[in-house]
């Protein structure tokens, strides 16, 4: 149960959604889908995300960002349930498992190994290493790139034989990445005060929580505006309407422990958008 808690199950949709969208959009373009590869893409992506979460759990505690004053869900390193170096090695083990699951994908599309290695390195560098991305204010950019562009285009390339640099894949990847970035943004706004003390210079710390909330509101709407313009479909209406509730709370509520509820709402918004986009592609 401890390791399940550290894996942050509520956030794992951020890996599943771009795979679902990439596979369906790739199929729309090529009319081909290798279903067995979808399975390995999912396992590899989950391995990378869980490994990243484990390393984040340990690294944030060791850097002093996760203390008893933290408003978010308690971490296993922070609570003293597992030594941080053990949690860190668990992250490396998950990266190794992700690499094993990716072997069939590399045999099918050899240069996808660059995407896999880049994702693992970025997962480690998110909060660990000499220049952790999250501590430099690059967390949201990391999510848009790896949980948006790379995940959508890489999936379509591997499972549907689509061109990796197809512009439609990257436009949709940008949409999905923006929605995924809400999870990081909400975390960072909630934790801005403790992050400031720990010298974790997230965008919320650099520009203030009010401005960051405005950015998140835009991130909740812009994906649907783009999608309605390039690929109009009635399927986009349900998540667009659902985004209204999240926008209202972001606008009204000051950073507090209540932002943990917003995390679930943001995750459900990304999931509903992914499902509706995929259904629209498959029409």
Descriptive tags:
283 residues; Farnesyl Diphosphate Synthase
Q: What do you see in this structure?
A:
- The protein is mainly alpha-helical and 283 residues long.
- Helix content is 73%, strand content 0%.
- It has 13 helices and no strands.
- Helix 2 (13-30) runs parallel beside helix 13 (259-281), helix 3 packs parallel to helix 6 and helix 12 (237-252) packs antiparallel against helix 13.
- The mean pLDDT is 93.
Per DSSP E runs of 2 or more residues, the count of β-strands stands at: 0
* Beginning-to-end CA distance, first to last residue: 40 Å
Unreliable segments (pLDDT under 50, ≥5 consecutive)? none
**Radius of gyration, in angstroms, nearest whole number:** 18 Å
CATH class type: Mainly Alpha
**How much strand content do the residues show?**
under 5%
CATH topology category name:
Farnesyl Diphosphate Synthase
The whole-number mean of residue pLDDT values reads 93
Structural domain count: 1
Biggest sheet features: none
Helix content: over 70%
CATH architecture label name: Orthogonal Bundle
Short description:
The protein contains 13 helices and no strands. With 283 residues, the chain is mainly alpha-helical.
């Amino acid at each position: 149960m401890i390791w399940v808690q550290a894996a942050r199950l509520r956030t794992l949709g951020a890996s599943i959604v771009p795979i679902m969208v990439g596979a369906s959009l790739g199929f729309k373009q090529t009319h081909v889908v290798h279903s067995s590869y979808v399975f390995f893409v999912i396992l590899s992506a989950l391995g990378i995300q869980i490994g990243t979460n484990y390393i984040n759990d340990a690294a944030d505690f060791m850097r002093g960002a996760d203390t008893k004053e933290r408003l978010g869900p308690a971490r296993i390193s922070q609570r003293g349930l597992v030594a941080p170096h053990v949690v860190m090695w668990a992250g490396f083990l998950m990266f190794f498992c992700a690499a094993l699951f990716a072997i069939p994908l590399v045999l099918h599309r050899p240069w996808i190994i660059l995407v896999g290695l880049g994702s693992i390195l970025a997962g480690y560098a998110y909060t660990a290493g000499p220049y952790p991305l999250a501590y430099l204010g690059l967390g949201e950019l990391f999510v848009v790139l790896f949980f948006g562009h790379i995940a959508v285009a890489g999936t379509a390339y591997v499972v549907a034989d689509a061109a990796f640099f197809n512009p439609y894949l990257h436009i949709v990847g940008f949409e999905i990445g923006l929605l995924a970035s809400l999870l990081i943004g909400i975390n960072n706004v909630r934790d801005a005060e403790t992050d400031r003390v720990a010298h974790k210079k997230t965008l919320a710390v650099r520009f203030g929580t009010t401005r960051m909330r405005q950015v998140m509101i835009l991130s909740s709407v812009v994906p649907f505006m783009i999608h309605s313009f390039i690929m109009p479909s009635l399927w986009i209406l349900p998540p667009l309407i659902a985004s209204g509730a999240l926008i209202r709370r972001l606008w009204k509520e000051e950073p507090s422990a209540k932002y943990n509820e917003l995390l679930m709402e943001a995750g459900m918004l990304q999931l509903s958008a992914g499902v509706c986009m995929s259904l629209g592609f498959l029409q």
